[in-house]
């Protein structure tokens, strides 16, 4: 941890304790950015009220007790009682060089979280025999980034892909599959165009509804057989689910998502526990029959009519639903997986459902107060018309086609701008940029806000976009390459990263790395921002907001651009050049390492 704004805190707290008494030692100094100095401390105002002093006098008392030797050159009281602090340049330089050395050694690249946790993360969670829609795309992308940040900070993460692989539609899907033949071209739709497969089964079902021994009847019997444990039906169901996994995995591999089949714990895996779970809730008086259905009525939820809202756990026909499964799921995550924190990276429209599940689980004692459960709400992705993104025909958008279009568009740009690169190189960059742009668009707005899916905007080389940040990194690679030090700083491979940042000039050569001198204002601004990397990651972990990391990287790319405009690197005289190259290398390490935590690759050339 080399962030000066955080390192100052204990000193300010010590001064507050001296000035106002020991009982005030834990006071939050309220550190904010300042227009006139590096930071400002705003705690004096609140303390003044408590002590019955004019705020400026309270500030003066703190300043008198403040020991900032060696770390601040300026201390000033301004306005109603702000304390403005300016850091000592030598201190900043020391911190930055410590940061560079840490960034270069894999073990300490990131300061671990104070108290690592066991975190279960439910994300992606698509449905068998259905197209993954852009909402699933977003929970997949946001979830995968959260998982990476948490792991980088030392948490033990357990990924859970809660796929929809159970329930009444499976009768119809299995019957349809058997009828058309598992090896037929129509069956292949399950992997290539699952919506079309589902629609075909649905159409058959609807048109045969009136027919006593028609498809619909067979489909209903099939559900009974499946849920009754009929072996043959179960085997067919397993093969059908396996086909859907091929489809999910094709999407995950296109996107570079870290989910594998090992992370699948679908709805079906909880089925055997549901009856007992309902019985337990009923016996303990936590659930009661209402309109024929067994329901819980957790506190704090009411419908439009003001009546308590039910969470249905056993339908009037005896069947179990989504809520029942989710209760069994949360209990499993606490009891069996030993979670300290359970995250649901799931669409915002499911908020009431998930909160009711959590509330019922708390009432039942399955979710103790020591375990935090959070719904990381994912906002809708809209089309240009401001409505949920749909294809022209109104059908759900085919995700694979959407991703391919992003890559094609990126390819057209790179073909025009870098014709001298080989076909292979351009293909690789186009994939990294196209996919990176889509992911970055999902990540850079608050996860709970809606946004409009717009290729032109997400692929733009300016603004808070994936390509802008990737371009800054690629540009630094090219500077280091021209200076002949790229290999030395990056292992020659895909750039120094948090996960793989094992090499640094010094570490490899066994000697000290070049010291970075922080002299020009642009260098200082860049240095101060670089020192906030760990703080940013910890904020992402606490608030579960990857967009903060995007904002950090965007600002880093901008600060780098102004530094590069104002401070010559390759043309500077020897010692300055060395220092600036080392600074460039640290920026590259943070850009590519940060992108990696977002699940985005850094192109070799762009
Ligand atoms: N399969 C659900 C859907 O597509 C999402 C599941 C989210 N996870 C959960 N535990 N309910 O909407």
Automatic annotation (TrEMBL):
Keywords: Aminoacyl-tRNA synthetase, ATP-binding, Cytoplasm, Ligase, Nucleotide-binding, Protein biosynthesis. Residues 6-87 form the Arginyl tRNA synthetase N-terminal domain. Its EC number is 6.1.1.19. It is found in: Cytoplasm. It is an enzyme of class 6 (ligase). It catalyses: tRNA(Arg) + L-arginine + ATP = L-arginyl-tRNA(Arg) + AMP + diphosphate. SMART domains: Arg_tRNA_synt_N, DALR_1. It comes from the Bacteria. A motif ('HIGH' region) lies at residues 126-136. It holds the Pfam family Arg_tRNA_synt_N. Residues 469-606 form the DALR anticodon binding domain. Coiled coil: none annotated. GO terms for molecular function: ligase activity. Monomer. Belongs to the class-I aminoacyl-tRNA synthetase family. NCBIfam families: argS. This is Arginine--tRNA ligase.
